[in-house]
Amino acid sequence: MAKDREDIEYRGHRIIANNTGFMIYPDKYRGEVESIEEGLTAAKAWVDDKNKARNEARRAPHIGTVDDYAEALEALSLGAHERLMLVAHRAAPDRKLSATELSEAAGWEEAGPANMHYGNLGRKIAQQLYLPIENDDDLSWTQALAEYHDEESKWEMHAELGEALDRLNIT
Question: Are 74 and 94 found together in one domain?
Fold first, then answer.
């Protein structure tokens, strides 16, 4: 018995295809086709083209574009602590905060929780956007969100992430 439709995850997108068309989420892009296989092929090509254009627009491979970050933030379910840290980081002068200040924004007293939770948020966003992160630790994953300045012991939120937060009115 032939399948009526196919529902797959592909590079951070959900693709639903049937014998007449396909839909790509979160973009809500749709196309008409004559088979499930044709729909999956066309949808994957569309996602690949979109990602190629975004990759070329990135100022560094591990830093998303404003559109990347906005899409990821809309797709992910943010915990209250993640939202509090992002909002505080965005509002900080020059978008710079120490790990202790990030922790305090979320209600913790020490840097450890922020290192772990901000690193986890960076991992989720990097994986959603297929950002290449070299190592598998909190420090490395946080680089998807911010750049660390040793001389100040502070993280500077990427301008693109800050702009995405503004666009989505996450304040």
Answer: yes
pTM, rounded to two decimals:
0.82
**How many domains does the chain fold into?**
2
Q: Are residues 46 and 123 in the same domain?
A: no
pLDDT above 80: residue 91: yes
Q: What is the 3-state secondary structure (H, E, C) of the chain?
A: CCCCEEEEEECCEEEEEECCEEEEECCCEEEECCCHHHHHHHHHHHHHHHHHHHHHHCCECCECCHHHHHHHHHHCCCCHHHHHHHHHHHHCHHHEECHHHHHHHCCCCCHHHHHHHHHHHHHHHHHHHCCCCCCCCHHHHHCCCEEEECCCCEEEECHHHHHHHHHCCCC
108 shares its domain with 31:
no
Q: Are residues 120 and 39 in the same domain?
A: no
126-135 confidence digits (pLDDT tens): 998 989 898 8
114: left (phi over 0), alpha (psi -120 to 50) or beta: alpha
Strand-pair category, 29-32 with 5-10: unpaired
Q: How far apart, in whole angstroms, are the C-alpha atoms of residue 88 and residue 5?
A: 44
Q: Which domain holds residue 96?
A: 66-167
Tokens 């693709």 belong to: 15
